[in-house]
Amino acid sequence: MRIVLLSGGSGKRLWPLSNDSRSKQFLKVLKDPQGRPESMIQRVWRQLGEAGLQDKAYVATGKAQVEIIYGQLGSDVRLIAEPQRRDTFPAIALAATYLYAMEGVPLNETIVVMPVDPYVEVGFFRQLARLEEALDESGADLALVGVKPTYPSEKYGYIVPDARGDEGGSSFLNVGGFREKPREADAEEMIRRGALWNCGVFAFKLDMLINILIAYELPIHYEEMQRRYGSLPKISFDYEVVEKANRIAAVRYEGEWKDLGTWNTLTEEIEDSLTGKGIVSVETKNAHVINELEIPVAVLGLADIVVAASPDGILVADKSLSPQLKDMLKHSEQRPMYEERRWGRYKVLDYRRYPTGKEVLTKWIYISAGRNLSYQYHSLRDEVWTVVSGSGTVILNERKLSLAEGDVFIVPKESRHSVRANTDLEIIEVQTGDMLVEEDIVRLEQHWADIVELCPASEGTL
Q1: 300 class by beta-carbon count within 10 Å (0-12 exposed, 13-18 middle, 19+ buried)
Q2: Quick one: 2-259 is in which CATH superfamily?
């Protein structure tokens, strides 16, 4: 069995803490068993380890999330990165070709696909083997995990069993159909007939999807699939595969499961009413404040609200209305103002565009001790760095220099450069150019040992 965790999302549902680079699964608003901040993806990855399944797991994601995943899960996590964002069918097809062509996974092996951010207990992951049993026993094309409902929710999709049910007490249900977000009365009736919540977890034999790709005359080798990825249709796996399946089975899970996809559901699992700088009055009831800014937020006498503040914006919302946030922001386009990377994180402090077309962007950059930026260059911008804390080593055009608090460092466009932090390092970076975009970066080497090999022995100070 192999497990593919789907990590995507546009970052709108939990705005302003989430953005296109830091989707909901990366927000460190939960607590691990030691009481330390933990994101949804870190929680799931930890639980996979506790269930003994990490060595079978892969994360399928987009290029924009690669750095933050390495930063949160470590550099050993196995990633399958989309060349560009398409939809779940192309993403799963790409993962299947990777497993088949690059990992040599046998065609009769079970592939489990699941979201990267369900809120479950570790026992959920120990149940995944039942999907393999259901496929073998039923002969179905797909096997799903269905959660036994605890109430008639209008927020979730439902797996509806067919007339055969579980066929004499077998370990699986025969699926008759699906129903998305029904009215409460309809949900009650479906639950009486044995319907389950659809938690987005399913399994298939690898040859099922490889044969679909062959039938569609799509590549089954990973490198060719990458080259042709942009021509694949933007279509979901549900529409392209699930709705066309001849037979679908489902296994029942009776433990805790939640989708923490909106502020009203997420705040149910946030222990502290105040995170960050702020004051919440005693008259305020059932409110959560999550503040990533350095200025305080005060809430006085309101109820059932969430206040979230980050460099990307400020949200004040009635919790019950927070699911409407994605639609409210669907026409809003803004570059991410905060990102996490494998080496640390950065925050945009200021951005200005002048009538001449010149742009100026100021960033605060934090590099963790022992980490380094890639060896890279930019074609569209010049940079000026001011070291405000810590020490490190700079490589500029193959020359190695020491860097310390108070140093000012100029990086002209096209200059090859990297920085390694000896201690935790904080830098204020000012970019100038006619177009300042994160995509203006060419990475030459990633690992510090490889970068150092490119440099002669010359060293110095600024």
Answers
A1: exposed
A2: Spore Coat Polysaccharide Biosynthesis Protein SpsA; Chain A (3.90.550.10)
- Geometric angle at alpha carbon 110, from 107 and 114, rounded to 5°: 130
The CA-to-CA distance between both ends of the chain, in Å, stands at 54
Tell me the whole-structure pTM to 2 decimals.
0.85
Instruction: Delimit the domains of the chain by residue range.
Output: 2-259, 263-328, 343-461
- Dihedral sign for Cα 218, 224, 229, 230, please: negative
- Asked whether 326 and 362 are in contact (CB, 8 A), the reply is no
Per the CB < 8 A criterion, the answer to whether 339 and 22 are in contact is: yes
pLDDT tens, the chain, 462 aa long = 999 999 977 668 899 998 877 888 999 989 999 999 999 999 999 999 999 999 999 999 988 889 899 999 998 999 999 998 888 999 999 999 999 999 999 999 999 999 998 999 999 998 898 999 999 999 999 999 999 999 998 888 999 998 765 655 567 889 999 998 899 999 999 999 999 999 999 999 999 999 999 999 999 999 999 999 999 989 999 999 998 899 999 999 998 898 888 899 899 999 889 999 999 999 999 999 999 999 999 999 999 999 999 999 999 999 999 989 988 988 777 778 888 899 999 999 999 999 999 999 999 999 999 999 999 999 999 999 999 999 999 999 988 999 999 999 999 999 999 999 999 999 999 999 999 988 899 999 999 999 988 876 555 555
- CATH 2.60.120.10 matches 343-461: yes
